[in-house]
Design goal:
There is one protein chain. A hairpin with a 5-residue loop joins strand 2 and strand 3. The radius of gyration is 19 Å and the shape is globular. With about 180 residues, the chain is α+β, with helices and mostly antiparallel strands. The N and C termini lie far apart (about 50 Å).
């Protein structure tokens, strides 16, 4: 996947140009690429209890779609020779550092980033996308089926952190007594 900051080129060279977002005090807008490749704006409204509904990702593209787009992007540029696991890991760590810089010196940041400008949110989206792309490419090069690995890991986490024992606590699993 390639970007010039204003448009995103997908698998087949299709281009999606982000729409402008308006700010509304009670609506949290987020942009995502729809099934047809065009940008959609999703709204998260507050429910009757005054709490915002849980944020959800768009259904498209899938993890496999993103992996495939990045593989195509890399193949077209003959970059596989540089994309070995160690290099991908180090590149991903660098991108995580860029995400960290966006949060540095801000103190606690509220969910939904209400105090951030559209430009700051877009920069965060770019950096998080870089992290995800490198993560997926690293998993591919290591032959880790990431969606299946996540399912296995979540099952292990449920065993390590049973809700009946850990509800509302941030302790590490080794600190809980039976």
């Amino acid at each position: 996947m390639a970007t010039n900051g204003k448009e995103v080129c997908g698998q087949n060279g299709d281009v999606s140009v982000p729409t402008n977002r308006s700010n509304d005090a009670h609506i949290n807008n987020s942009q995502s690429a729809g099934a047809n490749g065009e940008t959609e704006v999703q709204h998260s409204k507050q429910n009757g209890a005054g709490r915002a509904e849980r944020f959800t990702f768009s259904a498209q593209p899938t993890v496999e779609d993103i992996r495939r787009m990045q593989a195509e992007f890399t193949d077209e540029r003959d970059w596989n020779q540089f994309h070995q696991p160690r290099n991908l890991l180090l590149a991903m760590v660098g991108e995580v550092g860029e995400v960290s810089e966006l949060f540095q010196w801000r103190g606690e940041v509220a969910e939904g980033l209400p105090d951030w400008t559209d430009s700051e949110r877009e920069q965060l989206a770019h950096e998080l996308s870089d992290v995800l792309i490198y993560l997926l490419e690293l998993a591919e090069k290591c032959h880790v089926d990431l969606p299946q690995a996540v399912l296995r890991k979540m099952a292990l986490n449920r065993l390590k952190y049973p809700a009946s024992k850990v509800h509302g606590s941030a302790k590490k699993y080794t600190e809980y007594k039976d």
